[in-house]
Design a protein that fits this description.
By secondary structure, the protein is an alpha/beta fold. The protein folds into three domains: 5-132, Response regulator (Rossmann fold, 3-Layer(aba) Sandwich), CATH 3.40.50.2300; 151-315, Rossmann fold (3-Layer(aba) Sandwich); 319-451, Helicase, Ruva Protein, domain 3 (Orthogonal Bundle), CATH 1.10.8. Helix content is 48%, strand content 14%. It is built from 20 helices and 16 strands. The protein has helices at residues 14-27, 38-47, 64-74, 89-97, 110-140, 151-164, 180-189, 208-216, 233-236, 252-264, 290-295, 301-307, 323-335, 345-353, 359-373, 388-393, 395-401, 412-426, 431-438, 442-451; strands spanning 5-10, 30-35, 52-56, 79-85, 102-106, 170-173, 198-202, 217-218, 230-231, 241-245, 266-267, 276-277, 281-286, 310-313, 342-343, 378-379. The strands form five sheets. The chain has a five-stranded parallel sheet with strand order 2-1-3-4-5, sandwiched between helices. Strand 1 (5-10), helix 1 and strand 2 form a beta-alpha-beta unit. The radius of gyration is 25 Å and the shape is globular. It starts with a strand and ends in a 12-residue tail after the last helix. It binds adenosine-5'-triphosphate (ATP) and magnesium ion. Residues 180-181, 245, 285 line the site of magnesium ion.
Length: 463
């Protein structure tokens, strides 16, 4: 059965949404969700990927334009067709400048609407194809963003490519910062489902009471604050990949529910009675020793076997030091404003000596920090003071540091940027916690993030 197009109709006139939903669903080929105001629309857009949104311009409080902006930012391949009254003709044209695909005036003519929708769907496909092509190109040119030529690492990548084509569940293991999430993305991008969603769930950062409803969704009123029904991430991932990050952190009750889902593909929304079915490929990752967790009675053995059909082990960076120079070159190029910056042989020697307990992530931070701090075109040992452990572990480096007794003199802004980035990353980009630690308001934090162009590490597409 061909997949149905997912449509969202947003209008505060219930008669319009009712009519559109009935008409479109009777035609077949469309699944239609309805939102009666902008807030509801944004809620739905956060939990599901739509092909088309039919969007009223004039709504109280959150207007169609607000929703359009949200879509542009969060669901750029979703096509928006504005629904407008004749009198709003001018506004409608304005919305096209803001990224709407087209507009249809109310009362709408069904044939005209269907023709516009069909063109919008073509355009969406084009946008997606371009993205796919872009990924494809990256793969051919080898710039998937994954760096490593050491035999140990090449072996990992080869295994990933081999297993990507199958439907097998994969468990990625390795110490923190070794690139587990990156490898999970590669698994998806090399799989036959690469055009379908990749949905990442960080099981450690979602409070346990919420994890079940995040995964499986909930019905309206199933718990306090559940004002409307919400689709679970397993539904969002249907046909694609569900990435369970930090899977070792799931509580026992949720482990049981997850196991049932993995065995049958079936689940129930929290507070719901209907049994639903999806088909997803599950990739999970952990930096914990799950076998040990099983022995300690903290992790279900049957769940481990389900998840771990194929196991991919990423070795720590200290066991593949050949990769360090390549990674450095990659990060220098990506992080420094000057494309010609290099690392001096002395600095490189220090970086090779260090044992990188935080693995590639730690290396990335050191290189980013020191590219900013180094004054000239060459990163010298004295620029590496950004990492106190590194500075301490290497005596010659400590000496280099105290040359004139102080670290290099840079502006407060540069220090501030690096510090904010570190605190954000430490708290998994939780802005509330970060602002608290930094002693600033979340608004100030937000402005600083924008100003310094700090970036959330790649998804985490917590849809
Ligand atoms: N081989 C690699 N090539 C390029 N960048 C890498 C590589 N490995 C890791 N990185 C970078 O290092 C950082 C950490 O990687 P990632 O988040 O995938 O690690 P992780 O194993 O999931 O860590 P954790 O266990 O702490 O979640 C990311 O910014 C990632 O882009
Ligand atoms: Mg990770």
């Amino acid at each position: 059965m061909p997949k149905k197009f997912q449509i969202l109709v947003v209008d505060d006139e219930e008669s319009i949404t009712f009519l559109l939903k009935t008409e479109l669903e009777e035609l077949g080929g469309y699944d239609v969700d309805v939102a009666l105001n902008g807030t509801e629309a944004i809620n739905l857009l956060q939990s599901k990927i739509y092909d088309i949104v039919l969007l009223d311009i004039k709504m109280p409080r959150v207007s169609g334009i607000d929703v359009l902006r949200f879509i542009n930012e969060h669901a750029p391949t979703t096509q928006v067709i504005m629904l407008t009254n004749i009198v709003d003709y001018k506004t409608a044209i304005e919305t096209m400048k803001l990224g709407a695909y087209d507009f249809v005036s109310k009362p709408y003519d069904t044939d005209q609407l269907l023709a516009t929708m069909s063109r919008a769907l073509d355009r969406r496909q084009l946008v997606i194809d371009k993205k796919v092509m872009y990924n494809e190109l990256n793969r051919i040119t080898g710039s998937s963003g994954i760096i490593g030529e050491s035999p140990a690492f090449k072996n990992v990548i080869e295994n990933v490519r081999k297993v990507a084509a199958s439907e097998a569940f994969v468990l990625i293991q390795g110490p923190s910062g070794t690139g587990k999430e990156l490898v999970a993305h590669l698994l998806h991008n090399e799989s036959p489902h690469k055009d379908r969603p990749f949905v990442a769930v960080n099981c450690a950062s979602i409070p346990d009471q919420l994890l079940e409803s995040e995964l499986f969704g909930h019905e309206k009123g199933s718990f306090t604050n559940a004002y409307s029904a919400k689709q679970g991430l397993v539904e969002v991932a249907d046909g694609g990949t569900l990435f369970l990050d930090e899977v070792g952190d799931i509580s026992q009750p949720t482990q049981a529910k997850l196991l049932r889902f993995l065995e049958t593909g079936e689940f129930r929304r929290v507070g719901g009675t209907a049994s639903m079915h999806v088909s997803v490929r599950v990739v999970s990752a952990t930096n914990k020793d799950l076998q040990k967790q099983v022995q300690e009675g903290k992790f279900r053995e049957d769940l481990l076997y389900r998840l771990n059909v194929v196991s991919i082990q990423i070795p720590p960076l200290r066991e593949r030091k050949e990769d360090i120079p390549l990674l450095i070159a990659h990060f220098v190029k990506r992080k420094s404003k000057s494309k010609t910056k290099t690392v001096s042989p002395e600095a490189l020697a220090l970086l090779m000596q260090y044992d990188w307990p935080g693995n590639v992530r730690e290396l990335e931070h050191v290189i980013e920090g020191s590219s900013i701090l180094s004054q000239g075109e060459v990163i010298e040992p004295r620029d590496l003071w950004i990492n106190p452990a590194l500075a301490q572990q290497v005596p010659s480096h400590a000496a280099a540091l105290s040359n004139n007794g102080t670290p290099p003199l840079v502006s407060l802004e540069e220090i501030e940027k690096i510090h904010i980035q570190r605190v954000l990353e430490h708290h998994n980009w939780n802005r509330v916690k970060t602002a608290e630690i930094l002693g600033i308001t979340t608004k100030t934090l937000y402005l600083k993030i924008k100003r310094y162009k700090l970036q959330v590490p790649p998804p985490g597409n917590n849809a």
